[in-house]
Specification:
Blueprint (H helix, E strand, L loop, with lengths): L1 H17 L6 E14 L3 H7 L14 E13 L2 E16 L3 E20 L3 E20 L19 E20 L9 E18 L4 E2 L2 E2 L9 E17 L5
Length: about 250
Amino acid sequence: MKKFCLIVFCISLFSGYCKSQTANYSGGYGYFFTGPGWVTPNDLIDHLNSPAVFGSSFHWHSTGYTTGAEGYAELNRLLIGGGGFGLFVPDMSADSGTVRFDLAGGYFKVGYVIHQTQRYFLSVHGGFGGGVMYTGIENNSRTTPIFFSSSRPVFPLGSNDYFHGYLFYDVGLGNKLIATKVDPNNRKSGGFMLGLDVGTLIGAPVDTWRDETGAVNGIPSPGTIFSPYLRITIGGGGFKNNDMPK
C-alpha cells in the first residue's frame, strides 16, 4: 500500500507540474496494446522454493509480456472507459517439474488529459477491477510428488492448474499521437493513433486457491503483487476542439 500511495503521489506531482493552458476536447478512442510487463510475487516464489515443492532448483522469471485492449470517451479533458489485459510469463523449469504463470483481468478506468493538441495528448489514468492469477504445476518426476498443496499433491508425471482471485488497481501515464494527416483549421481531428503507456498494476488477493474441482487447502496466499508495464498502443479515435469556433 505504501508503494501504491507513492506512485499516486508521484503521478499527481507530475500532473501538476505538466499542466498547462490547453483547449477542451471531446471525443473517443480505443486501442490494442502489447509490451513488456514485470511481476515478482514474492510470497508465491518463496512457496515454490520451499523443499516440499521445487526447492532451490526453481528460479523465477520476472519478465513477461502484456496484451489487451482499452477504450475511452473524453468530455472536456475527463476520460471514462475501461478494458482488459493479460500478462503472460514464459514457462519456468526446476529439476522435478515446470511452472506456468499468467495474470488476467478487466477494469473500469478514469483519467484526466494534462495536455492536448490536434495531434497529441498526454493523460494520467487510474483503474479498478478484478481478475485471476493462474499457476500451473507439472510434475516431471517418476517417483516424487510435488506438494504445492500440502493436502492435495501433484503426483509423479501429473499436472494441476490453480487459480486465485484478485482485485486489481491500475495507475499510469498515457501518450497518444494521431498518425494520420490533420487539418489545423478544422475543429475536428482523428484517425489512426499510436501511443506509449507506462504504469503499474497492483493486485490484492481475495478468496482462496482453487482448481477445477473447487477450493484447495494447504497453499499459502500469494500476497500483494506489483506489476509495472510498458505498453505500445495501436488504435484510432476522433476528437472535437470545443474551444475552436465552428
